[in-house]
Specification:
With about 425 residues, the protein is an alpha+beta fold. Among the domains are: about 1-100, no CATH class; about 255-325, Alpha-Beta Plaits, CATH 3.30.70.2490; about 335-415, no CATH class. It is built from 12 helices and 11 strands. It has helices at about 10, 20-30, 35-40, 60-90, 95-100, 155-160, 170-175, 210-220, 280-290, 340-345, 350-365, 395-405, and strands spanning about 180-185, 195-200, 225, 230-235, 240-245, 260-265, 275, 290-295, 300-305, 310-320, 325. The strands form 5 sheets. A 3-stranded antiparallel beta sheet has the order 7-9-8, with helices on one face. A two-stranded antiparallel sheet has the order 1-2. Strands 3-11 form a two-stranded antiparallel ribbon. It is elongated and about 105 Å long.
Length: about 425
């Protein structure tokens, strides 16, 4: 126990053995070894972890004496320090002593998820005339909410809207959300124990006070309502450089500066043969009929030759005028909120946003276990609704475009749209 740790060293001078929390846990886990467990099926095992304290008849008097001596030493050291400080003040002056007493306090994050304060009963006296006019069974009460948007959560969005900058807590939440940092509990590469934030790339520890200066520039560049793509030009007498900054991972490779469409073209002459598989050759023949020749090669491969009059689709592109979008922060991943990877692979991003927001709304309502709801209401009375203009846009693209281009699409893609 923590209060007795201070006397452990002096107590071992009386011939007893004390155990730290790790040592005691090791001893208890050792008693749970499968070999010892098999013995307990036949007869009980007695383990003496007293360390010899049961053989001290006056243990209470000994611990009291040790505490008294430690208290006397502490009082003596405190008196010596006070006397030394007084001498130092007289000899060197008050200002010099103030320099030595300066303590640098490093800023730390203080995350708080507080519930809204409830108004007192007296403050509602002006609406007392509404008593018995409202059916409480049909009244909707909002107790919590969640948000996933361009500025992350509702907390980080409010910081940008109210102050125009992130606090330490806001920077830490955004850096975690965007995958720059992650929480670590274990041994570092150098073998030392560490609990706290580490850089996601190199695994180095990151202190709370360093997150803002280290990641804020990247956070601001990849969060908020922003350009999907941006050209930065650098003109010089020697070089001409164009750098394109984009986030295609947010839009499945979509580039507004190169919006692609397919145009149907009729061939005016025969094309050179192309090598395809047997199945693909039959598909080409089925589509183009007499305007397509297929044949098998000597080594089992198949060839297709499109003839004059066949129709093919040729991609073309133009620069789109809409380049601004309300994108979630780059690097946002539902797995950081505890959603399994198999669900993420089969679920549209809009649904994943709804799942994370639902979990956050439950937590902000004080419900850490959603199954608690089932103790008070039937499952048929609990539901989730998603309000969206078009539904799962990512899944819509897979259902129409990807299937048209014969890309792999999950069978239940319709329910995700």
């Amino acid at each position: 126990m923590a209060p007795t740790n201070i006397i452990a060293h002096e107590l071992e001078g009386y011939g007893v053995r004390t155990f730290s929390a790790k040592e005691m846990a090791f001893n208890i886990l050792g008693l749970m070894h499968p070999l010892l467990f098999s013995i307990t099926q036949v007869e009980p095992i007695w383990a003496d972890l007293n360390g010899g304290m049961d053989r001290l008849p006056d243990l209470a008097d000994i611990t009291t004496r040790i505490r008294t001596n430690l208290r006397k030493k502490a009082d003596l050291c405190r008196a010596i320090n006070i006397d030394s400080a007084a001498d130092f003040k007289v000899i060197n002056g008050v200002e010099t002593e103030r320099l030595l007493q300066t303590v640098d306090v490093l800023p730390r994050a203080n995350f708080r998820f507080e519930f809204p304060p409830l108004e007192s009963f007296e403050s509602l006296s002006d609406v007392s005339q509404l008593r018995n006019l409202i059916d409480h069974e049909n009244t909707i009460v909002v107790t919590g909410f969640g948000e996933a948007g361009p500025w992350g959560s509702s907390r980080t969005r409010w910081e940008m809207e109210a102050r125009g900058e992130f606090t330490i807590e806001g920077c830490i939440e955004m850096a975690w959300m965007m995958g720059y940092i992650k929480h670590f509990d274990g041994r570092l590469q150098n073998g030392s124990l560490y609990v706290g934030w580490v850089d996601s790339k190199n695994g180095e520890p990151v202190d709370d006070k360093d997150v803002k200066g280290r990641y804020e520039k990247e956070i601001l560049a990849h969060a908020g309502v922003r350009l999907i793509g941006q050209f930065i030009s650098c003109n010089h007498q020697i070089c001409l450089m164009y750098l394109f900054l984009a986030e295609p991972e947010l839009f499945r490779g979509y580039d507004p500066n190169k919006k692609i469409f397919n145009q149907e073209i009729e061939l005016i002459h025969d094309l050179e043969p192309i090598e395809v598989s047997d199945v693909e050759a039959q598909k080409f023949k089925l589509q183009h009929d007499e305007k397509c020749d297929i044949w098998a090669g000597e080594d089992g491969q198949w060839f297709v030759k499109l003839k004059k009059g066949a129709c093919v689709f040729v991609p073309k592109a133009f620069k789109f005028s809409r380049t601004v979008a309300g994108q979630v922060p780059t690097g946002w991943h539902a797995g950081r909120y505890g959603i399994p990877e198999d669900i993420i692979a089969q679920t549209d991003r809009a649904t994943l946003w709804a799942l994370t927001c639902t979990a956050e709304a439950l937590i902000s309502s004080g419900i850490t276990d959603p199954y608690e709801l089932y103790e008070h209401m039937h499952p048929s009375e609990v539901g989730t609704s998603i309000g969206s203009g078009m539904g799962g846009v990512t899944s819509l693209g897979k259902m129409f475009r990807d299937r048209r281009e014969e890309r792999e699409v999950q069978n239940d893609i319709l329910q995700e749209t």
